[in-house]
Design a protein that fits this description.
Radius of gyration of chain A: 13 Å
Order of helices and strands of chain B: HHHHEEEHEHEHEEHE
Structural class of chain B: alpha/beta
Largest sheet of chain B: 4 strands, parallel
Shape of chain A: globular
Strand order of the largest sheet of chain A: 2-1-3-4-5
Radius of gyration of chain B: 21 Å
CATH class of the largest domain in chain B: Alpha Beta
CATH class of chain A: Alpha Beta
Number of helices of chain A: 5
Order of helices and strands of chain A: EHEHEHEHEH
Number of helices of chain B: 8
CATH architecture of chain A: 3-Layer(aba) Sandwich
Strand content of chain B: 5-15%
Largest sheet of chain A: 5 strands, parallel
Structural class of chain A: alpha/beta
Distance between the termini of chain A: 21 Å
CATH topology of the largest domain in chain B: Rossmann fold
CATH architecture of the largest domain in chain B: 3-Layer(aba) Sandwich
Oligomer: heterodimer
Number of domains of chain A: 1
CATH superfamily of the largest domain in chain B: Response regulator
Chain lengths: 121, 266
């Protein structure tokens, strides 16, 4: 599941992950939409933009945890904030990794595959 | 290259083209704030909206490879962040950051948003906006297959009917028979010669096509105006120096236009 408020980023991520990586993607334009879709889609991994209007990434993650059991679901934050304390904060919130924006669409799926393998071995 | 990766490249190219088209409108909306007299006293809510927009656009611009404007937007975001955090309150700094975004947008030669040039200037002329893209048939002359495919895919995604040609003689013959609504011509087309330039110039003259009239050259499409950059104009002048005598001045709103497209620039 990918959650990002930017239409262009969602579009390019969809191409990058479905066509390049072979993932099945549920694309959500807001934290609210993610909350509505989470049960039905039952993602194995959530790619969550940090800065979004209304519900930001961390708040969305918090609400998702209340809504469903995210026990085995990998959560990856995407952010332009690259300071160490920010990244440490996202990890403390439950993110298994953080992808720095801007990202390379051509290598995004490879990066997620690596994260998946790293946390499922 | 496999067909899958070709398809992927085409999809990416189409997305990039679409992003390029949309960016102008997004930037002009953002820059609208720079003209607000109340910039000195913007409410927290407006500043937050501005910051969020700058953040979103910076992220997407950098992801799509627009480094200069992406960095300018990032700087604007930082300025607004500092303002919101109460570390400084300087309308002048915000204005300067917005100006930097404006300058980067100008350097990008973005296609104009509806009713605007390069996202910053208003257009007052009637550009035939009532015509829908699907009503327009465009001819593309491009001898590089991947660029040609990308153009066809990108323009078709906006609804235009597109026919591509690799041979200027075929394009000229078809244009004389079918009267397309617009020509898109690669100024670095490898087979340009005096002879076929003369044929193209003759076709333009006969049908009122005018791809360069000595002034500001524009492609008129519904709701959009592409403007010739100085670099493209120079290229076009160099390419057409032998045939310009045969081109009549542009007749506004009267004829199909042609866009001189520099492969290197795109």
């Amino acid at each position: 599941m990918h959650v990002d408020d930017d239409d262009a980023i969602r579009a390019i991520t969809l191409v990058a992950l479905e066509h390049v990586g072979g993932f099945t993607l549920q694309s959500c334009s807001s934290g609210k939409e993610a909350l509505q879709c989470i049960e039905a889609f039952a993602p194995q991994m959530i790619l969550l933009d940090v800065m979004m209007p209304e519900l930001d990434g961390p708040t969305t993650l918090d609400l998702l945890k209340q809504e469903t059991d995210l026990g085995k679901v990998l959560v990856v934050f995407m952010t332009a904030k690259v300071q160490e304390q920010e990244i440490a904060r996202y990890r403390a919130l439950g993110a298994c990794d953080v992808i720095i924006k801007p990202f390379d669409p051509m290598t995004l799926s490879e990066r997620l595959h690596r994260i998946w393998i790293q946390h499922n071995d | 290259m496999t067909s899958n990766s070709e398809t992927l490249q085409q999809e990416m190219a189409a997305l990039r083209l679409q992003y390029h088209e949309n960016l102008s409108g997004e930037i002009s909306e953002l820059l609208h704030h720079s003209t607000l007299p109340e910039l000195e006293n913007l409410e927290q809510r407006v500043l937050t909206q501005l910051r969020d927009t700058a953040h979103r656009l910076a992220g997407s611009a950098l992801t799509f490879g627009y480094e200069q404007i992406g960095l300018a937007l990032r700087a604007l975001e930082g300025t607004l962040d500092n303002t919101l955090a109460g570390q400084m309150r300087s309308a002048e700094r915000i204005r300067k950051a917005l100006e930097q975004v404006h300058n980067s947008a100008m350097a990008l030669d973005l296609p104009a948003a509806p009713g605007q040039h390069n996202g910053v200037e208003a257009v007052t002329e009637d550009d035939g906006a009532a015509r829908r893209p699907e009503d327009l048939h465009l001819y593309v002359l491009e001898d590089d297959p991947s660029t040609s495919d990308m153009l066809k895919l990108g323009l078709s995604s906006f609804g235009y009917r597109v026919t591509t040609f690799v041979d200027i003689n075929l394009l000229t013959a078809a244009a004389l028979a079918d009267h397309p609504d617009g020509l898109i011509i690669d100024t670095e087309y490898s087979s340009f010669s005096d002879q076929n330039l003369a044929a193209a110039a003759n076709a333009r003259k006969r049908h009122g096509f005018d791809s360069y009239s000595g002034g500001q050259r524009e492609l008129r499409l519904p709701g959009k105006t592409a403007r010739c950059t100085p670099r493209r104009r120079r290229l076009f002048e160099q390419t057409h120096q032998h045939s310009r005598a045969g081109i009549e001045p542009r007749r506004r709103n009267a004829a199909p236009d042609a866009l001189a497209l520099s492969r290197a620039a795109d």
